[in-house]
Amino acid sequence: MIVTRKKAPQTIQELAERYKKLIIVGCSECAAVCQTGGSEQVKEMATLLGNGREILATISIESPCDKRISARDFRRLEKELEGADALVALTCGSGVQAIAEVTGKKVIAALDTDFLGMVERLGRFYERCSHCGHCILNDTAEICPVTLCPRGLRNGPCENIHGTRCDVNNDRDCVWHTIYERLSSRGEAERFAAYHEPPDWSTCRSPREEIWERK
Amino acid sequence: METMNYIPSVHSRENLAALLRKAGAAKLLLIGEYGTLTPLTLINEIKTQFKGRVFLELIAANKNRDLITSYVLSAASAGFDGVVIASGNFSASGPMARPVYDLDPSQMLSMISALKKEGLLPASFTIAARSAVGNGAIAARARYLLAHGAEYLAVSEQPGDEFKDKTMRIESL
Q1: CB spacing of B99 vs A151 below 8 angstroms
Q2: Which of B103, B111, B138, B156 is best to mutate for the A interface (most A CBs within 10 A)?
Q3: For B140, which of A151, A192, A197 is closest by C-beta distance?
Q4: Looking at residue B120, what is its pLDDT?
Q5: Does CATH number 3.20.20.220 belong to domain B2-172?
Q6: Please, where are the H alpha helices in A59-210?
Q7: What is the CATH architecture assignment of A2-115?
């Protein structure tokens, strides 16, 4: 799930200052779970920006980052879109850009996009994957050191480990200690010596794309 | 077990001269990269004033692999007698800079060992790697480093018996 955070209300007001007719767009998937872009937050945004402006429509899209779904849902708002000066998107950055491409309109990003999160429960989101494109989880007892080590080390603990603790996040164990313990408990400690090459950045530089070939 | 006298940072040539006086009759110096002056620019002065061997503490932090290659080749060419590979302190310049860790110490070791095998580093150029001291993951990594090209571990605590013969002790100057 994409974890997002609300920008400050004052920032949104400043960004929307010159636009008089707005459409507020929410996301009923990730941003709804984060309570940053669900229907409640869409209403709050309409209230925040309604003073002195016209809110032409509010809409919650199932996956605004999916251009097919955005295009389908915006078809129902053709008239409002025509009259709108700008849209305010309570979505992740992909959603903002998909909406801009689909509508051709100015879109104000009302959220900051933080990370790809594992959900424990509402309000407890944890980064576990950096989508680096070179997954080593099969050697690391399904624990990602690229994400959980502040240095992103792919091959064992660094020299700064204090006992079992990380020197940067010293309230936590070093992730490589945790990996070693889990591998050892499974009788797979030999995997700890597996060498992981540095990523080949010639194949994973931004922007990344995946295009399926037609059969 | 050999001792390395550690100078983590040099901020001026006067500062260096004072540190070298302090080093006196030490046999081995380890020069760190945490100062405002890079050790690569100081090796001539160090070699003039200090008669022992001099190692560069080559940290992974805030260098990509191209720069690491350049540093190690420059270090050997300039007269350093070896390197101690380390991951380095996290964001030493403050919390605002984006930390760069293109290579980790094991990957650096692999790259530098390959340079030595290819003859791009002198045969006498020593490759050591910093290590913590401990059991479990720490000991397993130390074994890995020694098995994959590190001639010595460089540690700042008393090492366990298993590694004693392959350890250099780091002591602050």
Answers
A1: yes
A2: B138
A3: A192
A4: 98
A5: yes
A6: 67-74, 78-83, 93-103, 145-148, 175-185
A7: 3-Layer(aba) Sandwich (3.40)
